[in-house]
Fold this protein.
Amino acid sequence: MKQSDKNIQEFLTFLKFERRFSQKTIEAYGKDIEDFFSFVQKKGKKFSQVNKDLIFEYHQDIELQISPRTFSRKLSSLRTFFRFLNHEGIINDSVMYEVKSYPSPKFKKHIPSYISKKQFSQLIEDIKDDSSLADFERFRNLSILSLFFSSGLRLEELTSIKRSDIDFHSNTIKVLGKGNKERIINFDSLTNDFLEKFIQIFDRIDLNKIKVSDNLFCKKLKNEFCKLSRFNIQYIVMNSLKKLNINSVGPHTLRHSFATHLLNSGVELNAIKELMGHESISSTQVYTHVNIAKLTEELENAHPRGKK
C-alpha cells in the first residue's frame, strides 16, 4: 500500500473510532479526499506539496460539475483531513495554512421548509380518514409522522427504534444519533396515544410461524414482519406531505418544523441545538433565518407600506 493510501485509511479509521462518525459520513469524506488525491497525483504532487494554487486548479477542474455548496463541503473534508495530517506530523504548518486559508465559495443558504400546526393537524385527519389503510398501517404511519413533528428525530434515528427503547411513563425514546452517540428524545401525548394504539394492534396479530423484526416500525411481507427501510419511511412521509403546497416534502420538513416552532415559541437556540442533536450551533442557526423570513412576510402583509 502506498503511503498516501495508508494516510487516507488511517484518517478514515480516526473518523470511525475517535470522532465516531457514521459509516455514511465516513464514505463521503473518503470520496472527497480520494477525488482530490487523484487530481493531486495527475499533477505529480504529494500531500506535502499542496498549496492554494493547486486547490484553485482543482476547483476550476470540477466547478462546472458541482454546485458551490458541494465544493464547500469538499473543502471542509480536505481541511479536516489535512488537520489530521498536520497533527500526525505528515505535513508542516505552512501546508496546513495553505489549505485552511483557501476561501470557501459563497452560496445562498437554503431556508428549510416547515409546516404549521394547522397543516399537521390536517395531515393527521387525512390519515385517519384514509380507508385504503389497515389499522396497523394507519397507526404506524400516524406514529411516524407525529414522532418526526413532535421530537425532531432524524430519519436514521427513527428507522432504528426498537420497542424496548421507548419509555411511555416519561414520554421519551433512547436513540442512536449521529456518530453513534446515544441521546434521549421527548415526544408529546398525542404521539404517545398513536404509539400505544399501534403496539396494541400489533400485539393482537397472530404471529405464529411469522418472523418478526426487532425494530418498532415494520411492514408485512409474506410470512415476515420486516424493518421499514429509509426509503419506506421517506415514502410514507412524502406521500402524506405532497398534498401541501411546500417546497420540500420529506422527513426533514417535519424535523425542521419541530425546530422552527420551538424557536417561534421563544425557546433558546442552545436548547434547540441539544434537542436536535446538533454538534455545532451553526447548524441550528439556520432556523433563525426561517424566523426572520416569517417576520418579514408578516410585516410586508401588515405594514401600510408593505408589498401589495
Remarks:
- The chain is about 60% helix and 5% strand.
